[in-house]
Amino acid sequence: DLVFPSMSYRTGPYAAGGIPFADGYADYFTMLNARDGGIGGVMTSVPECETAYNTEKGVECYESLKGGGGLVYQPLSTGITYQLIPKTTVDDIPMHTMGYGRTSAKNGEVFTHTFNYPANYWDGASGAINYLLAENGGDLNGKKISLVYHNSAYGKEPIRTLTDLAAKHGFEFTEVPVDHPGQEQKSQWLQIRRDKPDYVIMYGWGVMNQVAIQEAVNIRFPMENFIGVWWSGSENDVLAAGAGANGYKALTFHGVGKDFPVFADIQTHVVDAGKAAGAGDQIGTVLYNRGLYAAMLAAEAAKTAQEIHGVAQINASQMRDGMAALEITEEKMAALGLPNFGPSFKVSCDNHGGDGMVGVTQWDATAKTWTLISDFAETDKELIDGLIAEDSAAYAAENNITPECK
Amino acid sequence: MKDNAESYVTTDGRTIGPVVMEMKNITLRFGGVEAIKDISFDIREGEIRAIIGPNGAGKSSMLNVISGFYVPQEGEVWYKGARRPPMKPYEVAQQGIARTFQNIALFEGMSVLDNVMTGRLTHMKTGMLSQMIWRGAAEREEVANREVAERIIDFLEIQAIRKTPVARLPYGLKKRVELARALAAEPSILLLDEPMAGMNVEEKEDMSRFILDVNDEFGTTIALIEHDMGVVMDLSDRVVVMDYGKKIGDGTPHEVRNNQAVIDAYLGVAHDEEDAT
Amino acid sequence: MNEQLAFTIEVFANGLMAGVLYALVALGFVLIYKASGIFNYAQGVMALFAAMTLVGIQNGQVPFAHLINAMFGLDVHKFGWTVHSFVAILLTVAVMVVLAWAVQRFVFRHLVGQEPIILFMATIGLAYFLEGVADLMWGSELKALDVCAAPGACLPQGMNMWLEGTTYEALGYGFFIDNLDIVASIIAAILVVGLVMFAQYTKQGRAMRAVADDHQAALSVGVSLNFIWILVWSLAGFVALVAGIMWGAKSGVQFSLSLIALKALPVLMLGGFTSIPGAIVGGLIIGVGEKLFEFLIGAPFLGGATENWFAYMLALLFLVFRPQGLFGEKIIERV
Amino acid sequence: MLDAQPAQVQVENLLEVNNIEVIYNSVILVLKGVSLNVPKGGITALLGGNGAGKTTTLKAISGLLASERGEVTKGTIKYRGQSIAAQDPAETVKKGVVQVMEGRHCFEHLTIEENLMTGAYTRRDGKGAVAADLEMVYNYFPRLRERRKSQAGYTSGGEQQMCAVGRALMSRPETILLDEPSMGLAPQLVEQIFNIVKEINEKEGVTFLLAEQNTNVALRFAHYGYILESGRVVMDGPAKDLRENQDVKEFYLGMSDEGRKSFRDVRSYRRRKRWLS
Amino acid sequence: MFYREAGDFSTTYPQDQQTFPIKFDRYRYYVVLFIAIFVVPFLLNDYWVNSLLLPFLIYAIAALGLNILVGYCGQVSLGTGGFMAVGAYSCYKFMTGVDIWWGGELLFRLPEFNIFFSVIMGGVMTALVGVLFGLPSLRIKGFYLAVATLAAQFFLVWLFNRVSWFYNYSASGQISAPERDLFGILITGPSTTPWAAYLFCLFFTIICALIARNLTRGASGRKWMAIRDMDIAAEIIGVNPLRAKLTAFMVSSFFIGISGALFFSVYLGAVEVGEAFGIQKSFLVLFMVIIGGLGSIFGSFAGAAFLVLLPVVLKVVGVDWLGWPTDIVAHLQLVIVGLLIIVFLIAEPHGIAQLWRVAKEKLRLWPFPH
Ligand SMILES: Nc1ncnc2c1ncn2[C@@H]1O[C@H](COP(=O)(O)OP(=O)(O)OP(=O)(O)O)[C@@H](O)[C@H]1O
Ligand SMILES: Nc1ncnc2c1ncn2[C@@H]1O[C@H](COP(=O)(O)OP(=O)(O)OP(=O)(O)O)[C@@H](O)[C@H]1O
Ligand SMILES: [Mg+2]
Ligand SMILES: [Mg+2]
């Protein structure tokens, strides 16, 4: 078997986000097994382990799944990622942190076993600014932009990028932290009501998203000017606020909705066969699609690895090579039944982050759907690469790593 | 009355020393309630001093004043010839004043032995560091104090329950353990608040014997609150009588018993026949 | 009107409103503490459980569907009907009463006379249990909560336009107050008045306080601990439901709802564990205090997100001067 | 003086305890087969030294044992012929049996008056009757009237004892189990409390089962007595007979042939004579 | 019959005072120690160490510490998570060299401490912070104090999150333990061998247990217990309440700090304060203490074992053996843990330790019940 462990969190404070992702991840592999007979003729399996988004449980999961010969880990939590970066390196197992985790892991010379393609937090920040630039005819001078963020390592990620971008584009940037869990955000939103920023960017997670959007509705902050990162852009986050949330925007690095051929396959091979993961009611939601996308990328990387090494039953080390040589093109996606589902990108041994293309989606509260309103667009590479080089160099120095392409 | 500074010998041959503790014009109020009203009396070294009075007269409050738990609004406490400055209760205890409580105040979560050992705490001085290491100073001190505690346990005949958690003990034994704990401190003044409540005659006899022996052997000064007139009259050298916070009598048991005010307020008439020997 | 002043007043007013919401949660704690000396760790989870049950009933969800499906290979999810909010609330209250009975019957009846910390621990066990049951019963995904008297007449949310309009005309600055908060305040006021009357003027109220003081003695005069506890836990369950609705309307119903308990603790501490009015006053002080601090000092000088600890620090400060909280019963220290 | 009541030969037994065994914490065996009968309208005394098992017996009857992690493992307890063993204490109170617990157990935070009012919790006979009884209790214990607005936690030991007894009276019970009612009370009050007991017993026909250490008074007021030692009944009989019994005299009444001895003269600790075990 | 103490007589007080006065217990204790030190290290793999043993040992230290405070001294604290964070961050700073700045200039930088002393310093700094937050305990009691300690919890977490000096200005706000060795054997970092990490933690656990035992059987322990059982009476018989409480806070925080330091450096290797040392941690350790048994050294171990092992066992049974979906198992796990806590409490309110004691009492009498 090709083992793709799923470190899911279907309980705890973030269960609402964890469930669809885990379902999507599992369903895709179930479909591959049923439709294609696995990958390259080898069946896949997806052992699941519940982390409850808790670091210690995550470590326990990693250790217990390790025995099963997992090919690639998706820790799904920044905390767990930090745990596993050194561990996976030593164990020679690759890890994929898609749109979360340690941003500077993009530097494959330092972080040999961690991949964060197709986009990372800093791409998110830059993508949002780029989008706003486009909206404002390329000029943000004198505008005010606030960042509402989860007061944790994750939420603080974009600050440095945004500060630099503010200097570059001449907008005024303010930070508004929200403490975990973020059930009560009156002060923060009164502050925003007073400051009257032109745009608000949000890096939130869990209940903080719902409350923030609700409070934004309450103070009548125009939803079109409110952009969340991809972890603040699922149905969960907007549904509670009802009609008021109409027009809210969120970044993304993959397609939304069910309008892709692959969903027909999932319907026939998975749902109708009664093999859907979880309750089976999440198909087509943003986070489900993200799980599916992660699974697709993992499967493609496995295929690449099979090609490189010429064996069907690859191991984790070979999987890493596959990931490092992964290339996603329009044609490939179309062939998979996912045309234009995500940006096309190419991973290399020194670039583990892909090309950092980011799109924007918008919420339609009446139809209760997200729609992609911009293409997957470039981010400010120059600036981000500088930051990444700096941060990864610090990590390398701290841990006596000589950056090299392995 | 003899002069304060003078010692004298009682009829049964015990020496009563000079005054060690003197309460001067103590007044204690709780909000509107005046629990003690301008009371003065003294305690001599080596004597057994009883405090009696009806319920709510302020006896326990007086003991609490002595042990520093209540701070009187007015009045002074003189100890060993000097005015005692305001003090925390534990400082009073460290001066050698130990006591028992009316509503048993044992440490319910600990064994009898441990309770008695807490009485020794004022004597234990090793630092935390050597306690951590245990071997050496701490152990030596522990053993030395344990010996004292065991002596007291023997003395009060509670060997059999040494390791029993006090919560399981019946009321009477708890009182005895409390006495043991107070004695373990080897105090110079021992304050007893109704030590014999809830005991039958036989047990009271035992208890009396203990009290007398402590007084005899160690020369411990004892202040005693008790409602059993037989005990009070037999044991005490002098008696203070309180009523509604006021002192209504002070003197030898014989004097007090024949004091009309005391009879009216406290003893009642019905009692005489029973107590008559 | 001076802008800074206007903002400050606005923050103040919103602090009061937030305080009321905290107080709603704190009330449940107070009830149980007052009646049994139990510090009910499970109060937050009860709010979650109540809210989940309410939504589940409203939407006609099949309880334990996921478990049933997994065990018997079925595929049931919904009954296919929806229940009117009002009926659903009544049914939920009934569920909470059953819960109260079960708690009493299977837990606290066996723990009469134990120390407070042990009872506290039992409520922790209860919290785990309830959380698990709630998830198994209704699933752990996010659910939107709407309480509507009639279609279109739901719990109001969002800025009160009338207030904004009038203040704008009168003062030149339109104040922001959330409609939901206004509703919550009215409900809280009704609850508090009712509960105070109950505790102060009925014999059950007196018995409740007696039980908190001494289980055994209460038993010995014939107070039925069982009855008192069922009564009080039911009341607390009801209060939890109200809190669950108010908070759930804002953030949707999911696990984090149980964490609102953490916002209630400083309120409880400041108002006094045993005082019903204390919960409200404490809530107001904490609400205003933390909001003003964040607004005036926290955000400008300390980098923000100070509310969580500041609420506790503020309460701590009060406690140093009044160890039993503002309205709590004086701790009796006697020998 | 009281045992002179006409021979109660054919009285109905209200409470029958038959051969009960009680175990605490499922390991400590405390009562080893205790049987007793409490006749309707009588005053029955339960005597015995510290730790004999009096409190345990009373708690077994009232059902309070469960909350102490104790358990009646053998035997039956019947009230009016119905088994009340292991019953919810509140039920037992409804049946008319109320216990006054040893060591007062007042509700500290409630005022004296509220304490008394909780006593009336189970009553259904209207506000007026309760108010009248409150007045009655205040008349029995004027001290309580003075302190009615104080929190019970802040009253003196004796005041709390009065409060506990008063509280039991407030429930208008048919049977009262009194555990050491005289503990910590001033002598006239002891007498008074027993007089009240007698009065209520005679006027209202309330039945009493009282555990007492003050054997002397108890046997004067009771009709029948049981003597308990280490968990067994070692002797029982009409109070008069017990008072005349040599052993009882010596061990429980503190009288030898020459009459009552001074506590000071007890020179050695006496080994208790045991009837059994 | 199975469990005998007949024939065991103490003839001296030290003998009577020792940790295991009964021979049977003493031998069993030696055997356990022997196995733990000389046998277990040879049988280890990553899974056992990282998922079970390290958390068990480290939580046991924290539980010991909290037990001193709650179980022995009666001061309920919910600040454990915050105090562990102090331990972890102090350890980190000392590991990487404490830098002192003044007015934007680096005044000096301490040399990097050896990992052993870094952990100790974690304990020491936490002890100081603990004393500071223990001060209100003189006036505030019971659950009020418990809630008040949450102030420490929230404040400390906020502080470590906010002040970047604590995490050496790293971009992510996480701290990660660099590789450090002791006598050339790696203790921290990903390449550490399981047995080295295990023995390192075991050493601290044993030392802490010994210290806890020595303190609690002597004068300090009695002072604490006296304060716990009745603080007023304790004061009147001569215990200085402030000192007793503060020493309890100090010792307790010292242990908790050590455990926090180990938790970060040896066990996880990288932590983020809010996640690793949040309020849940405070509750978790408190649960361990109460379930294990308040006022019992053995109880701290039992409680830690219970709460570390139980979820894993349930998971293994549910997911691996029965093959149920993970979320149902996770939910059932909550239900079962909750039920077990309640059942335990009803069976024996004083925790596993007391259950064990009663069991021994019964065994001693077996086969005759009384
Ligand atoms: N802390 C306090 N606050 C308020 N009132 C108090 C306090 N302590 C004692 N009192 C009151 O002071 C009076 C004297 O109480 P105290 O306990 O000294 O009486 P006592 O002489 O010991 O009586 P007893 O024989 O019943 O024990 C009582 O009326 C009591 O209610
Ligand atoms: N909760 C308990 N757990 C264990 N043993 C207990 C418990 N309560 C009482 N005992 C034991 O039961 C025996 C009888 O106690 P009980 O309290 O009934 O005595 P008593 O006759 O009322 O004594 P006293 O006159 O001193 O009140 C004692 O040996 C005591 O140690
Ligand atoms: Mg008194
Ligand atoms: Mg008794």
TrEMBL record, chain B:
Any one GO CC term of the record: plasma membrane
Gene3D superfamilies: P-loop containing nucleotide triphosphate hydrolases
Domain (ABC transporter) ranges: 21-269
GO molecular function, one term: ATP hydrolysis activity
Record-linked Pfam families: ABC_tran, BCA_ABC_TP_C
Superkingdom classification of source: Bacteria
InterPro entries: AAA+_ATPase, ABC_AA/LPS_Transport, ABC_transporter-like_ATP-bd, BCA_ABC_TP_C, P-loop_NTPase
Keywords, sorted A to Z: ATP-binding, Nucleotide-binding, Transport
Entry keyword ATP-binding: yes
Classification via PANTHER family: ABC TRANSPORTER ATP-BINDING PROTEIN (PTHR45772:SF1), CONSERVED COMPONENT OF ABC TRANSPORTER FOR NATURAL AMINO ACIDS-RELATED (PTHR45772)
Listed name of the protein: Amino acid/amide ABC transporter ATP-binding protein 1 (HAAT family)
Phylogenetic placement of the source organism: Bacteria, Pseudomonadati, Pseudomonadota, Alphaproteobacteria, Rhodobacterales
From TrEMBL, chain C:
Transmembrane segment boundaries: 12-32, 39-59, 79-103, 110-130, 182-202, 223-247, 267-288, 295-321
GO biological-process terms attached to the record: amino acid transport
CDD domains listed in its UniProt record: TM_PBP1_LivH_like
GO MF terms, alphabetically ordered: transmembrane transporter activity
Record-level GO cellular component terms: plasma membrane
Entry keywords, A to Z: Amino-acid transport, Cell membrane, Membrane, Transmembrane, Transmembrane helix, Transport
Membrane topology qualifier: Multi-pass membrane protein
Keyword Transmembrane found: yes
Compartments reported by the entry: Cell membrane
Family: Belongs to the binding-protein-dependent transport system permease family. LivHM subfamily.
Protein name stated in the entry: Amino acid/amide ABC transporter membrane protein 1 (HAAT family)
UniProtKB/TrEMBL annotation, chain D:
Designated name of the protein: Amino acid/amide ABC transporter ATP-binding protein 2 (HAAT family)
InterPro entries, alphabetized: AAA+_ATPase (IPR003593), ABC_transporter-like_ATP-bd (IPR003439), BCAA_Transport_ATP-bd_LivF (IPR052156), P-loop_NTPase (IPR027417)
Gene3D superfamilies: P-loop containing nucleotide triphosphate hydrolases
Chain ranges of the ABC transporter domain: 9-255
One GO MF term: branched-chain amino acid transmembrane transporter activity
SUPFAM superfamilies hit by this protein: P-loop containing nucleoside triphosphate hydrolases
Keyword ATP-binding: yes
Keywords: Amino-acid transport, ATP-binding, Nucleotide-binding, Transport
GO biological process: L-amino acid transport
Protein family membership: Belongs to the ABC transporter superfamily.
Keyword Lipid metabolism annotated: no
Xref: Pfam families: ABC_tran
PANTHER family in the record: ABC TRANSPORTER SUBSTRATE-BINDING PROTEIN, HIGH-AFFINITY BRANCHED-CHAIN AMINO ACID TRANSPORT ATP-BINDING PROTEIN LIVF
Automatic annotation (TrEMBL), chain E:
Compartments, as annotated in UniProt: Cell membrane
GO cellular component: plasma membrane
Domain of life of the source: Bacteria
Record's bilayer topology term: Multi-pass membrane protein
Keyword Transmembrane helix: yes
Molecular functions per Gene Ontology: branched-chain amino acid transmembrane transporter activity
Keywords per UniProt: Cell membrane, Membrane, Transmembrane, Transmembrane helix
Spans through the membrane: 27-44, 56-74, 81-103, 115-135, 142-160, 195-212, 248-271, 283-308, 328-347
CDD domains according to UniProt: TM_PBP1_LivM_like
Keyword Membrane: yes
Protein name: Amino acid/amide ABC transporter membrane protein 2 (HAAT family)
